[in-house]
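QA checklist item 7 of 12: single-chain prediction sanity check.
[x] sequence parsed
[x] length recorded as 127
[x] structure emitted
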Amino acid sequence: MTAAAPDNGPAESADAREARRAIDDHLGRTAAHEELARWRDGGRIDDRTAEDVARAAWDAVQDATPPPPSPTDATPPPPQAGPAEKTARSPERAERHRRAVAVALGLRELGYHLDETLLPGPDMAAG
């Protein structure tokens, strides 16, 4: 059983559709009966739940991010190692990051207020 809410069809952006999918996933795992009913009936959730959805998307990025090397276990990088190698992301992490950005932007597009730390950007925690 899905908690599908009405969408705006083809006129809706890919980010908004991604946000709706993330809401469905989140509510399917965590929702109380009232939240599911509100989502099914009106296609709305409260801002706190929207923040939980965005936070879950960013947590998925962190879950796919390998921990930094331990300073005691670190060996010097080979001489040819450059900045590109240090910032390269796994395909899984890159996809989760893309989805987290889309979810955050889609939630804003749908009219939800999100804490700045959940929005993508160079100076923000999630970005």
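[x] summary fact logged: Confidence is low (pLDDT under 50) at residues 123-127.
[ ] second reviewer sign-off
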